[in-house]
Amino acid sequence: MATLDRTHDAARQSWVASANGHADFPLQNLPLGVFSPPRGGPRGGIAIGDMILDVPACRRHGLLAGASEAAADAMAGGTLNALLALGAPARTALRHAVFDLLAGNAPAAIQALAPDILHRAADCAMHLPAAIGDYTDFYAGIQHALNVGHLMRPDGAALMPNYKYLPVGYHGRASSVRPSGLPVRRPNGQRKRATEDAPSFGPSRNLDYELEMGVWVGPGTALGEPVPIGDASARISGFCLLNDWSARDIQGWEYQPLGPFLAKNFHTTVSPWIVTPEALAPFRIAQTPRPAGDPAPLAHLFDATDQAEGALDVQLEALLLTRAMRESNTPPHRLSIGNARHLYWTVAQMLAHHTSNGCDLRPGDLFGTGTISAPEDTGWGSLLEISRAGKQPVALPSGESRTFLEDGDEIILRGRCTRAGTAPVGFGECRGTIVAAHTN
Ligand code: CA
């Protein structure tokens, strides 16, 4: 687990003025990403306030030598897979070096290089931070699993018997993961209402979002070699926000017996910045104790340290902005506010489970945690839950209402960490706007 050091000192400020008091990217965060400046190709960068630090440019100026050199060199290209492969020592060395570069007491000679090493984030394009080899989506948000179970099986058990023994997951589709801000085309697919005898093909009528956290894997693991639970967190290089767009009507028809397929793989949106385990170190918390009567995790999924500090205190928010709201300058409407602490399984347990059969993971693989819903209905992480499967429309300040998403609707996910005496850090936004389905 990452430990606290001088880079977590809330009193430290940056000479990059917009970083001081920034909601997401103060000096204490320093998340990793891939960006293109207005005139230039993709390269590795670090978010600082409203700016992006150009890591290869810093390297050219000789600002990142010594222990941080290997990490800086691994950020020269269009993906961060090589950096993720290096793991915590190189990543931490880079964090410390960049902290000193950007801290308020940095030498004037470094600050004078600002025009060369900093770009206004608003002028840059963000890319996926890694070439994603494999994407796995878990189902570790127990309140979401309970809510969906109650909706789908009102007379049966909400949870399947396996739920409290293993982190349920499925292999998702890596090719359709995109960074925040790109439009999301409504999928066509087979839909069948309960009253219909046969399905028809057409645009999804029940398009939904799922509020999740993403987990970036690195370093990789070897085929045939399980990662012990006590070593699992060292294989995780960072976190992001993830929207697992879901076509509920397509899902309801296709999912049995093998699980989600075309209802999920048309598009997944991630926030483009990798927030590191080091940045989140002040916000690690104990895993919420299991309710009395729940089984203890089997030995290969239990680690005392992981239970003591393996959960994350991240406030998670989903907002909706319809086309009419956008045109009338109405601010986005908050659909929910919850917290990642409500996950039933830690991310280390997810990684240990994923490799427990010998399945190998590669740097840049992506996990979704599963939809994170709070126990209270103000913190439910999908419209399926909020609208009770379409039976209770959500009233919006524009006078409109929604059960599921309409064309022109934008979903905005936000994640923020706050703790007394600590500089708050955030994830940046994870946005996507629905556009009309392809017409055949
Ligand atoms: Ca999901």
Write up what this structure looks like.
By secondary structure, the protein is of the alpha+beta class. It has two domains: about 5-125, Fumarylacetoacetase, N-terminal domain (SH3 type barrels), CATH 2.30.30; about 135-435, Alpha-Beta Complex (Fumarylacetoacetate hydrolase, domain 2). It is built from 13 helices and 26 strands. The chain has helices at about 55-60, 70-75, 80-85, 90-100, 110, 115, 140-150, 250-255, 275-280, 305-310, 325, 345-355, 385; strands at about 30-35, 45-50, 50-55, 120, 125, 135-140, 170, 175-180, 185, 190, 200-205, 205-210, 210-215, 235-245, 245, 270, 285, 310, 315-320, 335-340, 365-370, 395, 400, 410-415, 425, 430-435. The protein has a seven-stranded mixed sheet with strand order 7-6-21-13-14-16-8, with helices on one face. Strands 9, 19, 20, 24, 25 and 26 form a six-stranded mixed sheet that branches. The longest helix has 15 residues, at about 90-100. The mean pLDDT is about 95. Calcium ion (CA) binds next to loops.
Please outline what is shown here:
This protein is α+β, with helices and mostly antiparallel strands. It contains 13 helices and 26 strands.
Integer-rounded radius of gyration: 22 Å
* Share of residues in strands: 15-25%
| CATH structural class of the largest domain | Alpha Beta
Mean pLDDT, to the nearest integer, reads 97
What is the correct CATH architecture of the largest domain?
A: Alpha-Beta Complex
**Order of neighbouring strands in the sheet with most strands:** 7-6-21-13-14-16-8
The CATH homologous superfamily of the largest domain is called Fumarylacetoacetase-like, C-terminal domain
| CATH third-level topology of the largest domain | Fumarylacetoacetate hydrolase, domain 2
Low-pLDDT regions: none
Counted by DSSP, the helix tally is 13
- Number of beta-strand segments: 26
Give the tally of structural domains. Answer: 2
- Which structural class is indicated by helix and strand composition? alpha+beta
Measure the end-to-end span. 51 Å
Morphology call: globular
* Cofactors, ions and other ligands in the entry: calcium ion
Question: Could you describe the largest sheet, including whether it forms a barrel?
Answer: 7 strands, mixed
Helix share of residues?
10-25%
